[in-house]
Amino acid sequence: MNAQDTASPGLDSVDISVVVVNYNVKEYLSNLLHSVYKAQHQFSLEIFVVDNFSSDGSVEFLRERFPQVAYIENRENKGFGKANNQAIRQAKGKYTLLVNPDVLIGEDTLQVLYDFMESSPETGASGCKILNPDGTFAPESRRSIPTPMNAMYKVLGLSKIFPNHPRFASYYVGGRDENEASDIEVLSGSFMFFRTDVLQKLDGFDERFFMYGEDIDLCYRTIKEGYSIRYIPETSIIHYKGESTKKENLRYIITFNKVLYQFFEKHYSYGYSIFFKYFILIGVIFKSAASYIFSLFNRTLRPVADLLTLNLVMVGFFLYRYDIAPVEILDAYKPVFLSVNLLHSLVYLGFAKYYGLYSRNQHSWSHVIKALLFSLFTVASITFFFRDIAFSRLILLATTLVLLLLLPSFRLLAARFFYKGSSAKDRMQAVRVLVAGMGEHTESAIRKIRAEVDWNYNIIGLVTQRQDEPLQTIEDVPVLGHISQLPEMVKNYRADQVIFMLEKITHLDVLRSLSLLRDSAVVCKVVPGSLDYIIGKSNVEYFDDVPVVDLELPSLNAWNRLIKRVFDFSLSALFLAVMAPVWVFLRVQASLSKTSQETVNLFIDSSTSQNVRFFTPYENNRLLNTIEFMRKVFSGEFSLVGAPILRERQGSFVYYKPGLTGLRQLNEDRLFRDDEKQRQELHYLQSYSIWKDFEILFKYLTGKHKHFSAYLSGSSEGS
């Protein structure tokens, strides 16, 4: 036997059996199980989790948190239908809920569906309104049995073009209000509430459908048995849609699109000619090919755009360097030069793949810089040894310098406008977050979010779940209002994300809020009561503690110290050379005005201090003080990126040079506790690389952050 079956709970009378098939989505499934238990009320439940040979330790993860659940562990991926049937045959509940792991149900969901089924014995199955993670209505909440005509409309894409047309969108019951209860023909396989005796009489899913289409077939057979199927919009669920499957591969697309033909062949083929059957088959093949091409286009858009930009810039500099008119390029640009373009493109793609530039939700501009610089050195080295493809290194250098500006800018713009709020990593500007739901662990949750150094979250306010909750401040975060006011708060405070804390807030409130926020661009995420992670539409972000002790700090490594010193020396020398005339002018101006110098005592560590002279008033002499600071960087006393310029004696736990900016300084406005500030500094020291200095300095120069002299004067003005 390929499965290790755990017996279902020994209950004399079970109201509802819940069946979930899992494949590598343990966090989503944990979230679902929490919501199921919150919706349990007076019902007796038995819950089956059928694991289809997950590789992420799902069963161990879940069994620790939900020991009362019955687990069926398959030693292979048996597919959706066969895995469900393993549990359906064991179900003892009066009703059976078949639900996907990437679903969140409301506290009233089980009650509403149970009550309806009790009052409607002719109904064999029911479902509810399904919401997308952005709060919009999911059309698969209710569907029609595929017929040759509505299947053709769907295959041709007409159902998407005319989503409300009664004919073209008939597959999704187009033209009917989403809040209208009605008998329907097909439920979504993500959530189906069946009478167990009906489900077992039908012997569950047809196992010939490995994945997708089983729900259509099961509903069709239910209706043929004389039962009705009901859509009940009074309650709703959230479906994260396909988190247990990968939708951007050919196998998925072929499997998904051949379902219509497979269903048609099983139930309709006897009534139609061979010509019509082949017409449907050709349509399905065409739709599969079109879907794959479109997904391939999405995956290759960024690398193609990068390579196009790289080659256009290189050719442009070639024309400029040798004074060639664009119309003469075909004659002047010899094949040997094209080989350099090809070499540069391949080398850049290699480094881009190494740094994961084209993986999902990856928009890191710092990795682009690394890939470009290493590509320059590699191509320049190769052309040096192979004279036949020797190329102007000035053109290579100029191309790289322009690309260092263009490609990171493209990614910053994409992260800012096209992937707004989707992830807190690799963003230039902090993600503005509202935290909804307050409980005894609110302070701990805020500290955990702030403690994640790689997450660029700025918690701008808290949202209460009770009208009588006092407006207060927790961990220096103000309570802004009640959850019913959430749409106004999102708009007024320009929030990028709303994080719902499920410790106290109800799933019903989450569902209602999603409906109210459906027309906004805000991203909604949830944190389970365990406070282990944050769940979004396509990613799970874990809370991980930074180690308190690390015996080998990369920042203290001799090689890294040398590279950092070269970096500081080079940039400060360049800055001082450019600013020398300005420095002379400012010093003369300072001597003629009321400007004076003041000695500032800087604490370096718990036992060492240093006296430094700066010009006062600090904020009126920022440029002059910056030049003085850069002189200290040039001499090696300070660093461009380092510790805060002023620190309390007890706040210093290890020595490193004061910096013009630093990781802690960039995040100072959202850090309120000493341990949070020290965690930022410790993370910098533990994960140090010269690339991190590049990244921090770039963020400082391009963002609105405090000038170091603001710390001397206590000013809060931005630079």
Question: What does this 3D model show about the protein?
Answer:
With 719 residues, this protein is of the alpha/beta class. The protein contains 23 helices and 22 strands. Strand 17 and strand 18 (540-542) form a beta hairpin. The model is unreliable at 1-11, 243-248, 545-551 and 715-719 (pLDDT under 50).
| Structural class assignment | alpha/beta
Number of helices: 23
Number of strands: 22
Tell me the name of the CATH class of the largest domain. Answer: Alpha Beta
Largest sheet: 10 strands, mixed
Task: Specify the overall morphology.
Answer: globular
**CATH 2nd-level architecture of the largest domain:** Alpha-Beta Complex
Low-pLDDT segments, ≥5 res: 1-11, 243-248, 545-551, 715-719
CATH homologous superfamily of the largest domain? Answer: Spore Coat Polysaccharide Biosynthesis Protein SpsA, Chain A
Q: Which fold name fills CATH's third level, the topology of the largest domain?
A: Spore Coat Polysaccharide Biosynthesis Protein SpsA, Chain A
Report, as a whole number of angstroms, the end-to-end distance: 68 Å
- The proportion of residues in beta strands is 15-25%
